[in-house]
Amino acid sequence: MMDNNETIQKDLEKEIGLVLTNHFREELAAYINQLINADFEKLVFLLYRIDVKENTIKQLLALPSNNNAGEIIADAIIKRQEEKIITRQLYKQPDNNITEEDKW
After folding, report:
1. Residue environment code for 48-75, b if the CB has 16+ CB neighbours within 10 A, otherwise e
2. What are the CA-CA distances from residue 30 to residues 67, 70, 72 (Å)?
3. Backbone dihedral angles phi then psi of residue 3, each to the nearest 5 degrees
4. Cβ(20)–Cβ(13) below 8 Å
5. How far apart (Å, rounded) are the C-alpha atoms in residues 85 and 91?
6. What per-residue string of b and e applies to 6-26 under the rule 16 or more CB within 10 Å gives b?
7. Residues 25, 35: Cα–Cα separation, whole Å
8. d(CA 37, CA 14)
9. Can you say whether residue 63 is alpha, beta or left, with left for phi > 0 and alpha for psi between -120 and 50 degrees?
10. Burial category of 35 from C-beta neighbours within 10 Å (exposed 0-12, middle 13-18, buried 19 and up)
């Protein structure tokens, strides 16, 4: 069974289309900084797809921080992925009695 960091890493790889290592926060922050400079529209779409609210990003960026924008946004994305994992765990239904043909 994967721990939360591994799950977040794999989920982000699917969402973003990058292969990430154990240092995925730093890699994600660098990628976000690249998008800020080169393809802001793609960043906005990515945040929408991952379900990170625009207001959340605005509030986080307005706070005093030693981190750059990419790191702040990466942390928000990782936090959102953690929330999704918790939600999945809370609502996961046991499927012990469901036949394979009935699963979808």
Report:
1. eebebeeeebeebeeeeeeeebbbbbbb
2. 12, 6, 11
3. -80, 175
4. yes
5. 10
6. ebbbebbeeebeeebeeebbe
7. 15
8. 23
9. beta
10. buried
Q: Tokens representing 73?
A: 């946004």
pLDDT tens track for 18-71: 777 778 899 999 999 999 999 999 999 999 999 999 999 999 999 998 999 999
For residues 61 and 99, the answer to whether their CB atoms sit within 8 Å is no
Residue corresponding to tokens 């292969």:
19
Tokens of 22: 């154990």
Does position 73 have pLDDT exceeding 90, yes or no?
Answer: yes
71's tokens: 């790191």
